Amino acid sequence: ENTPVASNRIRVEGGLATSILIKSDTQVTVEKELVSQAEEEDMETLLGTYVMGVGEAEAFSERMKRELQALEAANVYALLESETLIEEVLQGLEGASICVEDMDEWLGIFNVKLRHMREDIESIEVRNNKLELHSANYKILIDELDKLIQRLHIPNEVKEKRAELEKSKNTFVRRASEFLRNYFSGLVDFMIKKYFSQRGVLKRPDHADLRYKCRTYARLLQHLKSLDKNSLVPLRKAYCHSLNLLLRREAREFANELRASTKVGKAPTTWFESSAGSGPVPNSAETAALSDAYSKMLTVFIPLLVDESSFFAHFMCFDVPGLSNGCRSGSDSNEKPEDAQEGTVSDGNNAKINRSSSELGPLNDSLQELLDGIQEDFYSLVDWAFKADPLRCISMHGITERYLSGQKADTAGFVRLLLDDLETRISINFGRFVDDCIYMIEKTERNARQMGVLPYIPRFSILATRMEQYIQGQSRDLVDQTYTKIVSIMFVCLERTAQMDPKYADIVLLENYAAFQNSLYDLANVVPTLAKFYHQASESYDQACTRHINMVIFITFERLFLFARRIEELMFNISPEEIQFQAAMSKADLRKMLKASLSGLDKTINAMYKKLQKNLTSEELLPSLWEKCKNDFLDKYGSFVKLVHKVYPGESVPPAAEMRKLLSQM
């Protein structure tokens, strides 16, 4: 490698020898001679420049020492110059050492992985050899069995017996299926006549006797499945059709009795109509019977439908993952009912798992036939409660959500669909109510007079108070969405109403936003969604107050603040000392303006108070507005005094403290 090498040359100028350090890139080689040819020539040249006698030997020795010291200094300098290169070489060596250590560690890890891979490959090879051996043995066994079958001779008698057995099997399956179909139909007819003979009695459906009688033939269904699996398809349809008639009849009668036995007061259905008053909040207990009736319907029929679905799956020998045995519960459902819900599948029994998964589809189809149509009676109960009190949708939504979260079994698939549909139906009904409220708000906007608090502002607080009483479980989200939708429309309509006459826009806004805050103060402390709109109304109220008060102050002291505005505009272009020499800005003009604006100050301030009071329908807001008006006026007047002292030094202006004292006495 080429490395920088420093060489020292001797140059003679004017009889003096000087040492010159010359750097050059040379190849590092090993020379046999102690002194190179170039060095020898330099030494001869050096010695040739001196003509010395013997007496000058000491001087020559001293000079040679100095030259030697210069050479040593040059060598030390060369070493110091190469220090950075040495450090770079050392850092490179250290980095290379770290890389070598990392590579050694990686190689160790790869070595371990390769050792495990070798072991796995050996294990796979062993298994493959065994499989190949088994495959060869099975092939030989099949060939031998084929040869054996060719030698066998089945007598005709045996074939005839087998045909008779097949015929007997088909006859048995046909007659047993016909018997069971008739039995299911007759059993349901018997129950309908027995349990619905009395009117006006709210009876809870009881299927214990029906299941007991059906369970008598559970073993027969097992035999039919083993003889002909397809024979269960028409039997399942027949059972579903018969039981569906019973369940729908029971649901219809139960829902009718619930409606007939539930007495509720009349709740308001239109909360934002102009004819609706803003009286006391109705008590939610007046219509609590509606939620109780709906809850009782779910309490009775949801477990019943889940039990019927589970019993049907066991009784009709469906192989599904959630069942411990195809017909175990069908033979005796009184033994450990939890076993019916927590079945296990043997490890390694892949065929059973696949068969179970394939029967989930037919099971869901059968459950659809078993329970289809019963949802109409639930819908009718929901619609009835909605017509009596639309806000009851909130509590019914929470009740439905609670039942829905508890249905996890595979056999409860249709029940989950039913509850989902009920929740959707409740949400749609409640959405219609919200849309009606919004329509009435917009209608009020078109017909409302501009001044004063708009009627939907206080009515919303009554509605929100009532809605909070109905919240149950997960219905919080439904209510918050309703708040967001209604309040957003209210604020939009309020802004549009205020702009009908821009002259009174700020009065309309501040009065209505203040009424909104006053009516929802308590609820906003506990409901985050309403708290957000409360703060929004507070900001809008402050902005409207500021605009209205600034307008009142400016109208009352128009000349004063126009003069101040003119000063501020001129200060952008000229110095304060030059302003008094501008047109209409002299000291005389200042005194004339002050005299016109501040003479009879009591009457002027009284006039400002009356302007603030004018067109204000909410008298309770006047004290706070007047206080804010005085403070804003004092701030503006104090800024005006500072401007006058800066532009018109020495001019007498009533100080801000004097004005503050005067306002405090009024």
Automatic annotation (TrEMBL):
Residues 353-650 form the Exocyst complex component Sec3 C-terminal domain. PANTHER family: EXPRESSED PROTEIN, SEC3/SYNTAXIN-RELATED. GO terms for cellular component: exocyst; plasma membrane. Residues 343-359 have a biased composition (Polar residues). GO terms for biological process: exocytosis; Golgi to plasma membrane transport. Residues 328-360 are annotated as: Disordered. The keyword Metal-binding does not apply. Keywords: Coiled coil, Exocytosis, Transport. Belongs to the SEC3 family. GO terms for molecular function: phosphatidylinositol-4,5-bisphosphate binding. Residues 114-151 form a coiled coil. Pfam families: Sec3_C-term, Sec3_CC. Residues 57-167 form the Exocyst complex component Sec3 coiled-coil domain. InterPro entries: Sec3_C, Sec3_CC. This is Exocyst complex component Sec3.
